[in-house]
Amino acid sequence: FDSTGWCFIVSFNLWNINLRDQIVFEVARVASELGIKSSFGNGEESLAEESLKSTLEIIKATDINTSSMCCDVRRGVSTEVNSLNGFVVREANRLGVGVPLNQRLVDLISSLEPQ
């Protein structure tokens, strides 16, 4: 399917609570392993909760926007996925932490970029 359909599916699926939350929790797990602390406390759970809260606020504030990655895919240019989620994946690999959803997200979006 074309990039417009892909952008719709990704946007729709990111509203899927389980998928969205698990992607955020993977990022929080890596951040915790890197020693990044939550402003709520020192545990991974509070960092994950804070990360999810921030993510939900961003989703609500930008719900009518088209994401920059979606715009890039539509224009046929490279996205920032390797700088964002790709960084999470590289650090997770270095630390021995599994982040299968972030890896899949990077793979899917990268497959739509110009080769």
Distance between the termini: 18 Å
Given helix and strand content, the structural type is mainly alpha
- Low-confidence sequence ranges: none
Contiguous helical run count: 6
Choose one word for the global shape. Answer: globular
Give the % helix.
Answer: 55-70%
Please indicate the percent range of residues in DSSP E strands (runs of 2 or more): under 5%
Order of helices and strands: HHHHHH
The oligomeric status of these chains comes to single chain
Number of strands: 0
Radius of gyration: 15 Å
Average pLDDT level: 83
Largest sheet: none
Note down, in words, how this protein is organized.
The chain is 67% helix and 0% strand. It is mostly helical. 22% of the residues are buried.
Question: Which labels suit this protein?
Answer:
single chain; 115 residues; mainly alpha; globular
